[in-house]
Design a protein that fits this description.
With 318 residues, this protein is an all-beta fold. The chain has a single domain, classed as Beta Barrel (Porin).
Length: 318
């Protein structure tokens, strides 16, 4: 599981840009980190180590109407684009023991490291630390539903939780951590549409607790990001047997309730973004896999709109 870096400017940019005070509030979520064959670990039960690297480029801030917003700078010039990099390390254990309704239990641990690449004249103080928030996700993985010619559907449910363990300073407008607990459960599945064609999805719900130490310049006692839903989706075709799949991958995020400051909701604070592009997965062996995904964003509101490039390597210990 993006994690994308915590939405870079949190409540800070909403306050600086003033339309509205509670925009750019959502924490980091999985936008495009997972894609093809997402319904199950690729090699069955056991331990998995996964390494993600995501590059975000040419991000333009959008207001609640989807129009460009200039970044505030110290020299009066308008900086328009933001860039950042995320490195995410994941450790997964998938058991072979059914626990509930036939689902086999497992646990997912993830820890992001964030690097910001911002203009030197940007009039926002950035936390120089890089450690993001710890994600812990107990899950149930079901065996494939079989058809006459092989698997038809494989799926998983995970109760994902994000803990505010990362680096955060309320004096800084830009932090690697969101400083809040978030509950981000999901349902993931892969449907086998033919001998070589698959479609996958990961549907999340996001709830966020209050931040009782929001950015100092906001002059508020607390803030709370709204609830949201977001989905990753992908379809791929096997062009080299058991080796290479090519396809299309995408994501969509929609905030469904208003963000709050001191308990008051703000109209026009809801965020959304859509991303889509080409991708591939290369199977070096049954135990080593490389994913490459590119996403061009559009229809963004109250968040950046740019380009993501995602690399993911999966290793199964056997």
């Amino acid at each position: 599981m993006s994690y994308s870096v915590r939405n870079l400017f949190g409540v800070a940019l909403g306050a600086l840009l003033a339309n509205p005070a509670a925009a750019y509030e959502l924490p980091s979520v999985n936008l495009g980190f997972t894609s093809f064959l997402d319904g199950a670990p690729p090699a069955g039960p056991g331990w998995y180590a996964q390494q993600y690297v995501q590059f975000y480029r040419d991000g333009r801030l959008k207001d609640d109407d989807g129009d460009d917003l200039p970044l505030p700078t110290s020299d009066g010039l308008k900086a328009r684009d933001i860039n950042y990099d995320v490195s995410l390390t994941q450790l997964v254990y998938q058991s072979d023991q059914p626990l509930l309704f036939g689902g086999k239990w497992g646990v997912n641990l993830m820890l992001p490291v964030v690097g910001f690449d911002l203009d030197d004249n940007l009039a926002l103080k950035t936390n120089s630390a890089s450690m993001g928030d710890l994600l812990v996700g107990p899950f149930l993985q079901w065996d494939p539903i079989m058809g006459p010619n092989g698997p038809r559907l494989v799926q998983r449910i995970e109760l994902q939780m994000i803990f505010p363990t990362g680096d955060y300073d309320a004096k800084d407008a830009i932090n690697p951590s969101s400083n809040v607990f978030s509950f981000n459960p999901y349902w993931a599945g892969t449907a086998f549409l033919g001998p070589k064609w698959t479609a996958s999805w990961r549907l999340h719900y996001l709830w966020n607790a209050e931040n009782n130490d929001p950015w100092k310049s906001l002059r508020a006692d607390d803030s709370q990001a709204g609830q949201a839903v977001h989905v990753n989706f992908a379809t791929a075709y096997e062009v080299m047997p058991k080796q290479l799949r090519l396809g299309v991958n995408g994501y969509y995020l929609k905030q469904i309730t208003e963000s709050k400051v001191d308990g008051n909701g703000f109209k026009g604070s809801k965020e959304q973004v859509f991303g889509i592009g080409p991708g591939l997965v290369y199977h070096f062996s049954p135990h080593n896999h490389l994913f490459l995904n590119t996403y061009w964003e559009s229809n963004a509101e109250n968040r950046p709109e740019g380009v993501r490039l995602n690399l993911r390597f999966v290793h199964h210990f056997h």
